[in-house]
Design a protein that fits this description.
The chain has 99 residues and is mostly helical. It has three helices and no strands.
């Protein structure tokens, strides 16, 4: 009975590895790609800045609307609170009964 060792069945690659040192052509291509990415990043940052400015303006508008709506809620609770205190009668009905 013969046994096989793992090293007996493993074939080592015969091809040599390509050099990992970049050539001047690949460096130029990589630099060109980085420049394009930087240009895109700059454009995206400019868009983001404009959107943030718009958002700040809209936030101020929302703050004003919030104050307006809050005032409306307070006024409506005062009106509805008066109706609830009179037993569900309107102010005119309450004045008629008081006479």
């Amino acid at each position: 009975m013969t046994t096989r060792t793992p090293s007996a069945t493993y074939n080592q690659p015969t091809q040599t590895r390509l050099s990992t040192v970049p050539t001047s052509a690949s460096k130029s291509r990589q630099l060109s790609h980085l420049h394009a990415q930087l240009t895109q990043l700059t454009a995206n940052m400019s868009d983001l800045e404009n959107l943030l400015r718009m958002t700040a303006v809209q936030a101020e508008g929302m703050r004003g609307l919030g104050g307006y709506v809050g005032g409306m809620f307070m006024a409506s609770s005062k009106v509805l609170g008066e109706e609830g205190a009179n037993g569900g009668m309107t102010a005119e009905q309450g004045n008629e009964k008081a006479v």
